[in-house]
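hiii so my PI (J.) wants the whole complex modelled not just the main chain, which honestly fair. so below is everything: two entries, each one labled with what it is. i double checked the lines twice but i was tired so who knows lol
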Amino acid sequence: MELSTFMIMRNELTLIAVVLVLLIAEIFSTKKSQGALLNFATLLFAIYAAIGFLPGSEGEIFGGMYRSTPLIMVMKNVLNVGVLVVLLQSQGWLRKPENENRALEFFLLTFSTLLGMDYMISSGDFLMFYLGLELATLPIAALAAYDVYRLKSTEAGIKFVLLAALSSGILLYGISLIYGTTGSLYYDEVLGNLHMNVLQIVATVFFISGVAFKISLVPFHLWTADVYEGSPTNVAAYLSVVSKGASVFVLVTLLFTVFKEMVLAWQPVIYVLAILTMTIGNLFALRQQNLQRFLAFSSIAQAGFILLGMISGTQYGMATVIYFVLVYVFSNLGAFGVVAMVKNATGKINIDDYDGFYQTNPRLSLVMMLALFSLAGIPPVAGFFGKFFLFAAAAGEGHYWLVLIAVLNTIISLYYYLLVVKAMFINRSENPIQAIKGDGLARIGLVISVLGILLIGFYSPVFDWVQAVSFGL
Amino acid sequence: MQTNFSYTIWIPLVLLASFLVVGLFGDKLRPRLSGLISTVVILFGAVLSYWTAFQYFLVNGKADGVYQTIVAADYEWLRFYDTLAIKMGVLLDPISIMMLVVVTTISSMVHIYSFGYMKGEKGFERFYAFLSLFSFSMIGLVIATNLFQMYIFWELVGVSSFLLIGFYYEKPSAVAASKKAFIVTRFADFGFLVGILLLSYFTKTFDFQELMQPDNAAIAEMAGLSFMGMSVLTLALVLIFMGGAGKSAMFPLHIWLPDAMEGPTPVSALIHAATMVVAGVYLVARLFGLYALHAPDALSVVAAVGAFTSLFAAVIALTQTDIKRVLAFSTMSQIGYMMLALGVSRYGGTEGLGYTASMFHLFTHAMFKGLLFLGAGAIIHAVHSNEMTDMGGLRKYLPITHVTFLIAALAISGIPPFSGFFSKDIILSAAYEHHPVYFWTGWAVAGLTAFYMFRLYFSIFWGENREYEHKPHEAPFSMSFALIFLGIMSAVVGFIPFSKYVSSDLMPYETHLHMNVAVLSVVVAVIGIVVAAVMYMKPGGAADKVVKAVPGLYKLSLHKFYIDEIYLFVTHKIIFNYISRPIAWFDRNVVDGSMNGMAWVTNKVSNKIKGLQSGQLQQYAFVMIAGMVGLALFVLYWASR
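here's the output for the full assembly
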């Protein structure tokens, strides 16, 4: 094998290099140089993310276990952008005194999970997929428990790791059934041997269930609220955006390729999951007071909408899924960014605490409003187009009832998103949150989110670009 | 020679720029400077609109005697099928230019008026930023070249009016009202969106001009397809009308409008009298070719809803005591008129009389109803109350307000030669030609309108002479100026020969005053005024006796026929009890309860591991596994069918 073939894996190799450099740098770092080290790490990641946009080579290596296509590169770039924004937003929190000795851990753990996600997306067989998935999952438990001095954070970590173990058991069971009935783990060979027999149907359901845990689709969502609430806000943002996005990507590609012949089995599953997830996510979001919990349920509901694009099974449908995730990355990170900034400065996290927020922090509340409008799908911000395209994809294949339910759900969701907007702009408070001056990097993170929310909707080549690399059943 | 109208794109653009500048940097500027920027910009927009109207109507909008539909600008914005793209542009035809004039005129007056009215309010610059945003959105809506652009601006109008209504955030009722307005109209917009999707699914276009093409095969196909006894086209158009009915506060989607009166009064004048609430009428007029040529059934719905709303709202207006609410119901009633006129109209020539009538009434109504609201603002400004019962004898204190209010009241009552007379006359003529029931409904509404308007007028300016704690004083110049300007407009715009400019098929035609109709409607209006004068002009008039004579009817009307209570019953009793409560219970007891238990357990560090194993993780795992098995069984059943 020539060295140049390794360039196909450029993305992962660079990331590993970044991790190694940081590990070495940490050995030589002192307490004083922690701040500089964080800046260096962020810069390194930004360079890495930029490299991802350079044209890369396609192909397969390791006998087809690893593959890279333009679609996969687009997906990885979306994730990289999401991680970059999360890193920018986390700086204020990482520089707090209680984190000063282990701020870099956050980077290393995050990069490890990202590496896992990249392998998962690039996998060419189920073994690689499973290894990637585990690499993407286990460090998250450590991230959730990052605030070791807070019991809730520890609890979140333990809950996550136990339930993740269960879900990965389910997933493995599904994969083993696939192996048993087809005699292979390679996607290409499995594809030819799936014929809708009973065992294979069960295997498909198990496989989807395992991945559904990561995307937190109802009824595999129960961990979400507790873990999001208990984790540090920035970790919750990471979980809700990057981790979820990666799993959505991998699910949509596998359903459209390996499970192509099983479409009659997975379509009803996705159909049911979509309805359950949208509706239950919304109904629970309605009465949340804690913003982190609120955003957890809102992100569950958003995942339900994504399934509408998947169910269509068309090239257009896949494009809408990727496009929606891209929009969702910016919208959700905009919201989480503001919540994290406020929580780190004041410790306040309830919706009531945001009464009169506009009076003291007009710019932050505008960012939050845009992000919530985008999540709610109010035109002309990007979230509207994201949802609209998803609905159009499902309606185009004749799933009118599903679209109807989805539209009704957007109306419900509008109500609770507006509650927050109302609190910020309209409610009045005796002692509103004081004016917050976030650190420069966090503000850059918010500006990127806002630009994303505003520009992706208005700038149409983005969708064309996504659609060009997508494919249908 | 064709004039190049491409400069019209600047009308919305300058307003957007003004919103951005004032919205982002307003807190850095002095408040009055922010107001000044917005006002200058909207005046500039108004001048451009007048120039456009002059060029179009009087110089060279016509070719061979027919008004041209001009696309002054059209940019492709998002393409999402090969055949379907969203564009943003400027469409000029008689009705869009008329709306441009209406929106910029009323908006300019409101901008000027607010200098006096909002003086010293906290958030003065925010108010002006929102006004600019609203005007921008409304103009984007009226010049839309396609349904999708219209929908986007339609929603933006909703958002900006939400912000404007909720401006008095210290008033809880204002907050509730803004939410109600947004959610009710949003619910209606759901119909609109589904209608758009249906239309575009069949026709593969959003473009108004393509949709209106007479030989559009897809439209014919839609008209032929039947769904639940209606053609799909009719269904789509009824759904689109649902969106219009929500914005225009047609029964039964009207419940938000009276409550929206909690917002600042100039906002009510702009949004709830002249511009946003007529967007529904404009929407139907914009698609009128489709309604009239392919789906007359949908037009019947429009006519019936319009006629019913106009009567229903007029009856409620009889007994309200909050002057802004009287005006709100009166607006509903007058918009019902416009819808009725559209509903009874047919396509082409004199058949399209109702179309012209509707647009004419929209135009005159904007002037006199804007004036009424601004006048009401001046009165509220003077006596610090919305209640009619707190007023009386104000004609001595507020001479300018008095005269302008009287002009507006005469105009809305349809007394010649004020503007409302002319537009109402052709509405009633059109209704008469269509069906006598509609005519007599409209006729009765005319009488009721004259009565409640003069009840309002006499109670405020005549009636009992009160001792006021603070002597009421005439409004400052900025406010009086707007009142006088609109007063002149309300008096004279009726003389515009509207059918020469606006017609369903773009061909000018002649209308004549229908003598029978005119006499009948003036007679009933005069009766209404006389009855109101007897009851309310003198202190201790006949009013109380009437109330005592028909207590049941009075109460029914006072409580707005209990529509709000019915909605409340449905939402609170049924949805809350049977849907939200069980879910809330589940969340509180199962999710939260176990959560709290969990936290308690983790506090006992020694019991930590034991606690985790007996905590709700098991339950979570159980739900996951049960869900998975359930799904598998479901799919196996499904696949074996």
